[in-house]
Amino acid sequence: MNITTCEKNREKAVLIGLCSPPELPRTLVEEYLQELAFLADTAGADVLMSIIQEKKQRDPASFLGKGKVDELAVFVKENAVDIVICDDDLTPVQARNLERALECKVIDRTGLILQIFAIRAQSSQAKIQVELAQLEYMLPRLSGQWTHLSKQKGGIGSKGPGETQIETDRRLVRNRISLLKRKLREVLLQHDTQTRGRLIIPRVALVGYTNAGKSTLMNILCPEAEAFAENRLFATLDTKTRRLELKINKLVLLSDTVGFIRKLPHHLVESFKSTLDEVLQADFLLHVIDVSHPAFEEQMVVVRDTLRELGVEHDNIIDVFNKIDALEDPGALGALRMKYPEAVFVSAARGLNIAVLKEIISDHVALDYRERKIRTHVSNYKLIGYLYEHTEVVSKRYLDEDVELTFRVHKNSLKHIDALIKPLLIHDYAVADL
């Protein structure tokens, strides 16, 4: 049980969790509650106390045992606590019973994350997605909100105005959900129309646990990105895409995506699948990992599991271990390099090894390039100029009145370029086969 002081003008919160050794040890639950405290801080609450009860199974009526609920009720009353936050999902019955016993707001981890998303949402698309997720979360929890109106006796005439009000609310919520889904489809259609020209350019997406430093990395790779970055969870909700110049006529579109987290609400994943389409459409992913976090390997597993849930089945992923400057043990970095030999180790905040990361990105992009060689008359300046502008020209050789060009082109542009040069083609082969 940890008790702290709080700032003014912020809600006072208490966190609760269950441990069941050896399957779920207390130390692990303490780590989960530390993350929950960070979430609460992001949402605008100060945590006064964290409570962990050792219990094999959660109480179906009130989550915690009766004795622990009574103890918590005293603390809530004496300290004017505004909200109690549970690390696990609460059933509607558990939430309602806890609110009655504690006489304060009670929410679970999912509700807290949804609240943070609502605070962070800036664009119209993000606001629609968040409201959609909130309503789908709220729908099964509407029961019990109107018990003061319902009949208490059974038999004929027991269907009172309370139940009617519940059904009315459910219908209104379902209608709003349908409307939001329609609006979201329209926004996505408009977005697809606006970004259709991007399809021929290689695409790379930044993914990772929330607060791993994706936006900071985005800003140092693409200084004009101006991605919002701060030491808060879910600083980024809207996908931001910028051009990353690698070499002459060789670039990628780099996208910064929403961070993942343990127990990411299912409704949120479903609602934000359109935003996370950038992850599915990317040629490869940069998995940004906060190597200074004590549970970074567990966070890596969470990200990989979430990617699978989204439908990412390939392993074209580069692990980017960030915040190496924050490692306290001097020998830790060497051990990590041994354990993860294919990974890149950087500090986005200090700009360490960013040039190495760019080179690795360039090497991965090169795997999807093919090399072409053509011979054409020197007067064919229109085609020659087009190839210089849209491909990576490797060599040029003059043969009498002809010019022989060797160039590289990405697979996304291959069909279009081949249609232009087919009569002039001398030889082609994959860059990877050179």
From TrEMBL:
Subunit description: Monomer. Associates with the 50S ribosomal subunit.
GO molecular function: GTP binding; GTPase activity; metal ion binding; ribosome binding
Keyword Zinc-finger: no
Its job: GTPase that associates with the 50S ribosomal subunit and may have a role during protein synthesis or ribosome biogenesis.
NCBIfam families: GTP_HflX
Cofactors named for this entry: Mg(2+)
Domain of life from the UniProt record: Bacteria
GO cellular component: cytoplasm
Protein location: Cytoplasm
Protein name (Swiss-Prot/TrEMBL): GTPase HflX
Record family assignment: Belongs to the TRAFAC class OBG-HflX-like GTPase superfamily. HflX GTPase family.
Keywords for this protein: Cytoplasm, GTP-binding, Hydrolase, Magnesium, Metal-binding, Nucleotide-binding
Domain Hflx-type G: 202-369
Entry binding sites for Mg(2+): 215, 236
Annotated HAMAP family: GTPase_HflX (MF_00900)
UniProt KW Transmembrane keyword: no
Binding residue positions for GTP: 208-215, 234-238, 256-259, 322-325
